Amino acid sequence: MSRKYETIIGLEVHVQLATESKIFCNCSTDFGAEPNKHTCPVCLGLPGTLPVLNKKVVDYAIMAGLALNCNINSYSKFDRKNYFYPDLPKAYQISQSDYPICENGYIEIDTEEGTKKIGITRIHMEEDAGKLVHEGSIDQATASLVDYNRTGIPLIEIVSAPDIRTPSEARAYLTQLKQILQYIGVSDCNMEEGSLRCDANVSIRPVGQKEFGTKTELKNMNSFRAVERALEYEVERQRKILEEGGEIIQETRTWDESLNKTISMRTKEEAADYRYFPDPNLPPLNVDRDWVERIKSSLPELPREKRERFVREYALPEYDAGVLTDSRELADYFEACVKEYSDAKAVSNWIMGDFLRLLKEENLEIAEVKMTPAHLSGMLKLMDEGVISSKIAKTVFEEMFKTGKAPEQIVEEKGLKQISDAGQLEEIVLKVIEANPSVVEDIKSGKDKAIGFLVGQVMKETRGKANPGMVNQIIREKIESL
Amino acid sequence: MLEKKDIERIADLASIKLSDSEAEKFAGQLDGILQYVDKIKEVDTEDLKPTLYPVSLENIFREDEVRPSLDREKVLTNAPEEKDGQFRVPRIMGE
Fold first, then answer.
1. How far from A245 is each of A3, A239, A240, A285, CA to CA, in Å?
2. pLDDT given for residue A58 in this prediction
3. C-alpha A321: how far from its chain's center?
4. What average pLDDT does the structure give for chain A?
5. For chain B, which residues lie within 8 Å of any Cβ of chain A, measuring from their own Cβ?
6. Strand, helix or coil at A35?
7. Would you say residue B31 lies in a domain?
């Protein structure tokens, strides 16, 4: 982006709440059921049915609001948003218009210039619509198939203030938002299953201009990376138009992942008129202080607090603290290890390194890992006691991770105990010295680094089990006495 | 005064088709209703809270429990056409 223009981005994020049942009826919210197996007269919008609000939805919305630093409105209500489309059997969506449950919050993100606050204008509750699949190819289809399982799934829509200035800030905002929502457990935020969806509003304006430029709305971005790339493309497209003296048309554009560009969806001459009005079937909400306090006291430590505490309490580098607090589960695992083994940095190194690598390789969730925190701290103790070398520890670690066996058992079964018997080591050292006369000459003439080669040879002979400190010392002694 | 084009817009929002004579007829009828509303607006409501709901209920909830859904066979009896357990409807462009 050239210096001449400033980018203004606002994001609308829809998040599916992790309830068991739908927002206004008792149908299941389970993902992946056969089409229309989770529907009933209420979510199908049959005449004469009465929606009744799921209390958990309100709890979760308040929880999200508090975690995102919002005011929780004592008064809020539900409205009907009217439009015709086959994914919406009632021809209106129940949403919240002028009195949403939460307002005026913010998220802190990390940027190159430091911490930045991105405002959250509002959070409101609403029901999701059904899933529509066009028959055959998209441009020739004459019919659509509708599955109403999603209809009535509880959502919150989180609307950011137009405070985001770059596509990478947009991505940072989304990453932080997702992390917070997962920490507090209100959503799994699974983008592939549609539990988190993001639309973006973007405009540009000459630097120094007060008024916003004409914005476009971007849809159909299926990953945070796609959001970032769609925004990059769109900012550039708008800049070109303005520089050529053209005008931006206010419209909705869809991100085409394969073409790597945004495409105009439609240019409606009239703005949509949803004719919101209060839903007479749903009495208003009165959320009192007690309710808010109750939820507040149930909130877990949030990611940024945890990160700061890890730096403070365990004297970890910022980077380590960031990686370890990426998810609550990982942070908990780390803390369980540290409880039994106090060198936090050593624990952090193993978790950030081999632990995360194996987790990824085996495609596991932390809850599925067989190795317990006690096993990891046990292994670190074995290293300290000289029972195993750091090289062997890697083997032990992999074995623990894969089998869930205790470190002592693995060392015993596989005969991995470190060789610290001086007599035994001397014998091997002499053999290696004899076999490498030129290296010995090098060392004698001052090339001290060459000693590493000999240590390596001893390790090879002992399949990594030799005590490296002792080997080093014995080699020096032997060469000196030659 | 409501004009024919206002009626056409309202009809469009409600997805109903009106003939010219119907549009004119309804313009007159709706106008009458609006005049009636204007009359009500003459009442001084300065110190009154707006009434959004006819009853004074609040906080009506149910617990988050799953109960059996409707049999799909029954669900689909309302479908104009059915295919693979889904409602088959004419394709609609845009929203």
1. 18, 10, 9, 50
2. 98
3. 15
4. 92
5. 13, 15, 52-55, 57-67, 69-70, 72, 75-76, 78, 81, 83-92, 94-95
6. coil
7. yes
Which chain A positions have a beta carbon within 8 Å of B62's beta carbon?
Answer: 26, 52-55
Q: From the options 3.40.47.10, 3.20.20.80, 1.10.10.60, 1.10.10.410, give the CATH code of A422-480.
A: 1.10.10.410
Measure the CA–CA gap between A246 and A360, rounded to whole angstroms: 48
B36 within domain boundaries: yes
Q: Is the CB of B64 less than 8 angstroms away from the CB of A37? A: no
Residue of A340, A298, A299, A338 whose CA lies nearest to A320: A338
Domain region containing B22:
1-44
Q: Please state the domain count of chain B.
A: 1
Q: Are A455 and A472 within 8 A, CB to CB?
A: yes
Q: Which two tokens stand for residue A328?
A: 């609550």
- Detail the DSSP E strand segments found in A73-230: 75-76, 79-82, 92-95, 102-111, 114-127, 131-134, 143-147, 154-160, 196-206, 216-221
Extended strands (E) in A138-206? 143-147, 154-160, 196-206
Residue pLDDT tens, chain B, 95 long:
788 888 888 888 888 899 989 888 888 899 999 999 999 999 999 888 888 888 889 999 999 999 999 999 999 998 989 999 999 998 876 54
- The interface pTM score, or ipTM, of the predicted complex is 0.89
Who among A35, A36, A266 is closest to B94 (CB)?
A266
In a domain, B68, yes or no: no
Task: Write the CATH number for B13.
Answer: 1.10.20.60
- Amino acid found at A271: A
Return the residue of A nearest to B10 by Cα: A273
Does the distance separating the beta carbons of A28 and B69 come in below 8 Å?
yes
